[in-house]
Amino acid sequence: MNPKMQIENLNFYYNELQAVKGVNFKIKEHQITALIGPSGCGKSTLLRCLNRLNDVISGTKVEGGILLDGINIYSPEMDVVELRRRVGMVFQRPNPFPMSIFDNVVYGPRVLGIKRRSTLEEVVERSLRDAVLWDEVKDNLRKSGLTLSGGQQQRLCIARLLAVEPEVILMDEPCGALDPISTIKIEELMRQLKTRYTLLIVTHNMQQAARVSDWTAYMLSGELIEYGLTSEIFTRPKDKRTEDYITGKLG
Amino acid sequence: MRLFSPEQSQRIAFSLLWVGGFSVVVIVLAIVGYVLVGGLGAIDLEFLLTPPRGGLAGEGGISTVIVTTLYLIVLTLAIAGPLGIAAAIYLSEYAPAGRLTQVTRFGVETLAGVPSIVFGLFGYLVFVLVLGFGFSILAGAASLALLVLPTVIRTTEEAIKAVPQSYREASFALGATKWQTVSRVILPSALAGVITGIILTVGRTIEESAVLFVTIGASAFRMPTSVFDEGRPLALHIYYLAMETRAFDKAMATAAILIFIILLINLSTGLISQRLARGTR
Amino acid sequence: MVPRESFDRDLRQLQKQLLVLGETVDEAIAKSIDTLAKRDLALAQKLVADDALINKARYKIEERCLELIATQQPTASDLRLIIAVLHISTELERMADHAEGIAKITLMVGEEPLLKPLIDIPRMAQKARDMLKQSLKAFVEHDAAEAERICGEDDEVDALYDQVYRELLIFMLQDPRTISRATHLIWVAHNLERIADRVTNICERIIFWVTGELKEIKVSKY
Fold it and tell me: What's the total number of domains in chain B?
């Protein structure tokens, strides 16, 4: 089975500082892949390369390739706006726009040019259902997104993302700002989403990575140290550095 | 060894601050009160609806003056508003970080500190003479626009900067272009700040006299019908009444009207900001 | 959405795996006595070979427990359940080893006529199998009281073992030529007694899972 995304010899620089060093791995379709590692190991940077969000930061340089369905996302054939529709992102702090719930969810479709009211309403219901938020907000779509609780806001952001029908969902510490119960709900949601999308999650929380992912990649100082099945990584990692990190013996 | 105990220092500080605040209120009330007391008597419908007829006694009212002021406000806003907002958007969202942008920003900051009479003289030279507008509301508005442009740019930029970076990221991540992000997310969020900036501009317009002195002309007898007409705004009229006639009470009355208008402006600023903030909450 | 739905599913799956192993072991015990009674050497061979499959199944369960502990951070009763499953699978695998032992004795006895007709030994086997089936049911039903009760039934098996032993002892004392055949039968009975004893261990683990108490219910006489 061809991987959904493939990272080939990726090097990434913030001006002179190299944040990602020669990373190679495949992201399998309809699976959840977790990127773990200590602070500053480059995992968030790597994640942001996948939807070229790093492009907006000046002074950055990319070497190597990232393939989405076989096409390099940095090649001129790939339209950045289209890429970001196909590869969506959920952030650590929920960031709904200061608009109504309805307007939040349809932001993406509207940006793409969809105007018909009925279409938009369908999209809203579908996306909110997929994000398991519909029942909680269906009578209050006009309320501002900012009135929701943290966990609900994050699900709103996920609904907003699902509205543009992505293929890959990138999650940068999605539960970092949430309480334990909301975290568990989001984790269950991720398992449901994986049947239709491909998920890549960066997390500080090793236990979360272990609970939720099928594959795990461990990064240290910009390098990919080990990559494999989550059950293998957490029961018998091959590299001593991986073991040290997982068992908490690393600083 | 401390001179005072923490509780004592607290009490002393509190008293001093209270006295300071109280004094300011007293002073403001005194000024406003003086003006109102001196001028309210002269305000009646005739005063408001008839044009000044000149002369040492300061005959007539201030109808043309009010209309001129309104024209001036609208025109200045029309020029400085779009220009300033566009410049602010460019500077904060589009300009590449580098020498040129830094220089531009420095220029804007500097311009904000230039005394208004300089803008007046510039306006006289360029708009009244070179461009041939003559003494006119247009020349006055153009000069005023230049004067307030830095303020508009600055407050708009602040408002835009206040929009959290996370909104931009979320918008980009959904596949929006930069302009879509600016127009659909950033500007609406920054609106409250932008409007405040605009209203500050209006306030500045009304109280300006130096710039207008040399650009807008002085005739107040006829009602201005086009932007090329001369006119006399409120602040200037107060000067004239006070310095060149004996109608001190009318000067006070005009000042009272001016203060009243400023009050209205400030109140509406508050209301509009509140309304907008509630809209986005 | 039920929180941790997938983990619940995983746990139920694990329990099912254990039950399947339990049923397989029960069958093995039944077949082992069968081979002895019917002197079915072919079946005995098969039983010995199939023990490898049971070992494999047990390792799969152990691997799964390891995975779940490493990845799901179970706590409280979830953790006790996984630990209980780990231990119970070991006990079941050892029970299967005992059954295999009985089959091996059958192969050793070969065509030789039995010293005496099998009466008590099949009764022991039946009793042990009943205990096993009841314990698996108690596991499914989360029933600590039942588990404790089952432990008491081990007394019957011990009593039967006593009886078999004494009978065979008499045989051996009366005629030393029967010693070889008698010891074969004693070994079979011993294996069955051990099987029943292991069921009590399983019951202890069930009680641990349900109540959190780790206690030894019954000390075997042997």
Answer: 1
